[in-house]
Amino acid sequence: MPPLSSLRPAIRAAGRLSSVKGSESLLPKLHVPISAYVVDCAVYVDGKRLPGRWTHERALDEVRMRDNAFVWIGLHEPDEEQITGIADVFGLHELAVEDAVHAHQRPKLERYDDMLFMVLKTVCYTPQHLPEHEIVETGEVMVFLGPDFVITVRHGEHSSLSDVRAQLETDPEQLALGPAAVLHAIADHIVDAYLEVTEAIETDIEELETEVFEPRSAVDSEQIYVMKREVLELRRAVVPLGAPVRKLTEGYSSLVPHDVRSYFRDVDDHMVTVTERIAGFNELLTTLVDAALAKITMRQNNDMRKITAYAAMISVPTMIAGIYGMNFEFMPELHWRFGYPLVLLVIGFTCLGLFRVFRRNEWL
């Protein structure tokens, strides 16, 4: 039988179908176990993971019988019913639980009695240069931090924390610092992703800059607007996180010991770097938009000068043909044998003269 985690998409689809009005008689409401949403549940003692598989109740009981131990539970997009079971056992605040279920929160840090609740936005760079596609995709990671537990709730497919857990488990000394060390590792991992995304965006902006200032290049101003939109999306995900990280470095809660605060200072430095890069991107893209519009305006002016020059040359034969098309009886050279060739020569020389004048003035 396949594990419940592999059946998550089918479970969600069935749940949506059962919630549709009038479908209750067709499909009974499914009771989805908590394990279907638990990515991992582990107990750590002195920085080392205890072997075996744990439920959240057994894990908490085991931790509270030991010293220097905590439990780390990872959840992926749980619904309200499933997370309520964990919230009751760990005493999570109902407002924080509601935020963790519904997601779409701004980065923030909140304190509830002896628990911290932190929301971090994750970002992922996808190099797609079509207006209908997103270049920067966002997700969310919510962290419940207590004296002897860490509960992470992820929203989004690109926000996996398995690498963070694996890296921490290779460093028992770091894990021995307690749940705050896990919070730092998650924040550091997410902020490092910010740096990677800003580097990728910087490369794209440099390409746009080269294209805009390249002589006689076709300027795609729409792509600049797409990039500006994605930079603003990145800014909304990154900039609000600066204040929560700074609070953790200043002793906002006793749940973050002094030894861990120094690590958060490094994260804060990276946040400052990312914020400065994003501000620079925004200014540069604004400059590129102005330059692209100026280049388009110059091209339109050149086109209008060419159109005006050709219209002036076409007006000469049009005017002469209009005059001789009036068919009056007494008109100059109307019945002369060489009148028609003379008119053609006048038209030709006049147009040639206008062409040379416009060419000399760089209108053509």
From TrEMBL:
Topological relation to the membrane, as annotated: Multi-pass membrane protein
Top-level taxon of the source organism: Bacteria
UniProt KW keywords: Cell membrane, Ion transport, Magnesium, Membrane, Transmembrane, Transmembrane helix, Transport
InterPro entries, per database record: CorA_cytoplasmic_dom, CorA_TM1_TM2, Mg/Co-transport_prot_CorA, MgTranspt_CorA/ZnTranspt_ZntB
Transmembrane annotation, as ranges: 307-326, 338-358
Compartments in which it is found: Cell membrane; Membrane
Pfam family name, one: CorA
Function: Mediates influx of magnesium ions.
Recorded family membership: Belongs to the CorA metal ion transporter (MIT) (TC 1.A.35) family.
Protein name according to UniProt: Magnesium transport protein CorA
Species, as recorded: Pseudonocardia yunnanensis
